[in-house]
Design brief:
The protein is α/β, with parallel strands linked by helices. The protein has helices spanning 3-11, 33-43, 58-64, 71-80, 97-100, 114-123, 143-149, 186-190, 228-237, 262-273, 292-303; strands at residues 16-18, 25-29, 52-54, 85-90, 105-109, 127-128, 168-171, 177-180, 197-198, 222-225, 240-244, 255-257, 281-285, 306-307. The strands form 2 sheets. A 9-stranded mixed beta sheet has the order 1-2-6-3-5-4-7-8-9, with helices on both faces. Strands 12-11-13-10-14 form a 5-stranded parallel beta sheet, with helices on both faces. It is globular, with a radius of gyration of 19 Å. Bound molecules: threonylcarbamoyladenylate and magnesium ion. Threonylcarbamoyladenylate binds at residues 20, 22-23, 25, 49-52, 84, 86, 88, 100, 103, 105-107, 129-131, 166-167, 169, 179-180, 207-211. Threonylcarbamoyladenylate is lined by residues 20, 22-23, 25, 49-52, 84, 86, 88, 100, 103, 105-107, 129-131, 166-167, 169, 179-180, 207-211.
């Protein structure tokens, strides 16, 4: 399928999966409640979990928000858009309730991917799109991952995603804070807004509703290690597939090397979490919680069966 065909389907109220620089999204016209409901039905997404709206311009942003108040929002957009940063704004009345799951706010981002931008431009519409995985599965970083979770849904193939983890979600009312860690790091954000922090997580009523749902569950039990020696010992005695950075990969029987750097590890992680091996456990060697490592560890800790 090409961008022209995909844009036609979207304009007719259909759902199309498309690539972004973070992960693949399952998109629909954000201004069409019926189209957005199809996304929830396909994903099995809880009705209280709002979608991110994707725009290609600040002109389109103005159609989905009621105001772009504040210096902080302008500075973040100037620095990180297009890019993997989602900002929470007051919603426009024109936006159907289903997109924001009844909230008075809407999450918006401008993706930094040529295919995504071209698709939005050709469609001429803001696209509501959650990650294109069944609820509770790792987010898809290739078109093939989408096809496994949603056989029959049209997918625009833009190759593997460059970031491999989702966008960072920030709220700017009151103290600027990160609601969901993602591809833009806390350190990056502090370069623009020195006072920004990470929102406290209330497990029962998080500010970002998606954070209370079970996330990124791999198909096999997942054990997260911080110590390579303990991992080696465990791997000698148990049936495991090890996921770790290249420098630690030697000496394991079954290992998926995730790259040299934390950025490469982020890019390769979700694909590796889809590994299936009858009866085995997936063991991941963690990384320090700094830069993109903080996002990697956030995802691993949410997905873990056990943390050692
Ligand atoms: O990188 C990404 O963000 C990908 C690509 C496709 O753009 N999308 C994505 O969407 O990860 P999703 O639906 O899997 O995650 C959206 C997150 C959820 O945690 C949701 O609760 C939060 O954003 N969110 C959406 N609207 C919100 C709002 N109005 N207030 C607070 N959190 C919101
Ligand atoms: Mg998701």
């Amino acid at each position: 399928m090409d961008v022209h065909e995909a844009a036609g389907l979207l304009r007719r109220g259909e759902v199309v999966a498309f690539p972004t620089e973070t992960v693949y999204g399952l998109g629909a016209n954000a201004l069409d409640a019926g189209a957005v409901r199809k996304i929830y039905a396909l994903k099995g997404r809880p009705a209280d979990n709002p979608c991110i709206v994707h725009v290609d311009s600040t002109g389109m942003l103005k159609a989905v928000v009621s105001s772009v108040r504040g210096e902080a929002a302008r500075r973040l957009m100037g620095r990180f858009w297009p890019g993997p940063l989602t900002i929470i704004f007051p919603r426009s009345e024109a936006l159907p309730r289903v997109v924001t799951a009844g909230l008075e706010t809407v999450a918006v981002r401008m993706p930094n991917h040529p295919v995504a931008l071209e698709l939005i431009r050709r469609t001429g519409l803001p696209l509501a799109a959650p990650s294109a995985n069944l609820s509770g599965r790792p987010s898809p970083t290739t078109a093939a991952h989408v096809e496994i979770d949603f056989p029959g849904v049209p997918v625009l193939d833009g190759g593997p995603c460059g970031e491999g983890v989702e966008s960072t979600v920030v709220a700017l009312d009151g103290r600027p804070r990160i609601l969901r860690l993602g591809a833009v790091t806390l350190e990056h954000l502090r370069g623009v807004l020195p006072g920004i922090g990470i929102a406290e997580q209330h497990p029962d009523r998080p500010e970002s509703p998606g954070m209370k749902h079970q996330h990124y569950a791999p198909s096999r039990p997942l054990v997260v290690f911080s110590d390579i020696e303990r991992l080696r010992e465990y791997a000698r005695e148990n049936d495991v597939v090890v996921l770790c950075k290249d420098e630690f990969a030697a000496g394991f029987d079954h290992v998926i090397a995730l790259g040299m750097t934390d950025e490469e590890m982020a890019r390769n992680l979700y694909g590796a979490l889809r590994t299936d091996c009858a009866g085995c456990e997936i063991c991941v060697l963690g990384v320090p919680k700094e830069g993109i490592g903080r996002t990697i560890m956030d995802r691993l800790e949410r997905a873990a069966t056990r943390i050692v």
